Amino acid sequence: MADLLAIGTRKGLWLARSDDDRRTWTLDGPHLLSQEVAAVGIDTRGSSTGDKAPRVLAGVQYGHWGPTVTWSDDLGRTWEETDEGAIRFPADTGAALARVWQIRPDTADRPGVVWAGCEPHSLWRSEDGGCSFALVRGLWDHPHRPSWEPGAGGGAVHTVIPHPTTDRVLVAMSTGGVYVSDDGSEEWEPRNSGITTPFLPGPAPEYGQCVHKVDVDAGDPDRLYAQNHFGVFRTDDGGGSWTSIAGGLPVDFGFPVAASPRTPGTAWVVPLVADAERVPPGGRLRVHRTRDAGATWTELGAGLPDGSWTAVLRDAVCVDEGDPTGVTVGTRDGCVYSSRDEGDTFTLVADHLPDVLCVRAAVLP
């Protein structure tokens, strides 16, 4: 067994590998140097027998040539991309791709299916492992779409969560909030009841929330956690209603939330001082963990720095499927910290990288 970390930055991608203990890492890169890598996916569905490497997918921004999806089937030695781009808006939309924000392989029961969340607000589905994508017209043609506004980082679908046993798909966007399709992506409805909007006058609307990230609990696919632009929330009914679980956190602003893939009730957030400052409270980079679905939180900081006036972006925290769960955190000042014990202690994987935009982890056979 080995562990793989994919680290997407403002100027390229790095791959880190640990062959023994998830404490000692070998860093390989840069790959795709000078390209912005805002989204990474590691598709291990074809590598379970050990005779095939996982597919590493990257949402890149080439600058002059624009954004696309590229992939490697040999752990970064070579990269491929589809002629004329994997993601292209149909001519009748009058839109052009600005950035790929999310790449999400589906479950093992749906081999070849990969989802992409993009800017402008759009969802895409691939059935060939991420080589080409089709626009999900049900979400693009939704009557709410003209009202979805860009957040500070842009207007994008940044979270895609396919249900493991049904056709349900959940997405979250900034701004717009949480939307759910129960039929595989044709019909969509907002699921934001209980998520607050302190940045808007009056009561919270049906949609328009600035949800920063959503993740799903290991024990129940209808239990999800959301880090909002002010507020941390949990739903136990697939987004039908949300309840605040921010009590016990030093502040309720932040970008990422990550849930354990193996331990029900366990999730992590990285609090930041709101709103314009967006730095750890007191300059102390800390991860906070709940083991009881948000009823209580524990501050974790062993191996994390003080005097850290940086930020952690929405996809710069990830978890792996190891036992115990590993947690990885990347910062905007180019540091990556990883824990092999659910956040109790962290070790430095890399520093002096460009601005870390996203991290993804996988356990290799």
Describe the protein's architecture and organization.
It comes from Geodermatophilus normandii. This is Exo-alpha-sialidase. The chain has 1 helix and 28 strands. It is an all-beta fold and 365 residues long. It has a single domain (2-364), classed as YVTN repeat-like/Quinoprotein amine dehydrogenase (Methylamine Dehydrogenase, Chain H), CATH 2.130.10.10. It has a 4-stranded antiparallel sheet, with no helix packed on it. The protein has a 4-stranded antiparallel sheet with strand order 4-5-6-7, with no helix packed on it. The model has no long low-confidence stretch (mean pLDDT 95).
What is the count of β-strands?
Answer: 28
Overall CATH class: Mainly Beta
Nearest-angstrom radius of gyration?
A: 19 Å
The major beta sheet can be summarized as: 4 strands, antiparallel
Helix residue percentage: under 10%
CATH hierarchy: architecture = 7 Propeller
> How many domains, in number, for the residues?
1
What would the average pLDDT be, to the nearest integer?
95
* Rough outline: globular
The end-to-end span amounts to 5 Å
CATH topology description: Methylamine Dehydrogenase, Chain H
Oligomeric state of shown chains: single chain
Classify the secondary structure makeup into a structural class.
Answer: mainly beta
Q: Give the strand content.
A: 35-45%
Helix count equals 1
What is the strand arrangement across the widest sheet? 3-2-1-28
Low-pLDDT sequence parts: none
Q: Helices and strands, in N-to-C order? A: EEEEEEEEEEEHEEEEEEEEEEEEEEEEE
CATH superfamily (homologous) name? YVTN repeat-like/Quinoprotein amine dehydrogenase
Protein name: Exo-alpha-sialidase
InterPro entries: WD40/YVTN_repeat-like_dom_sf, Xyloglucanase_GH74
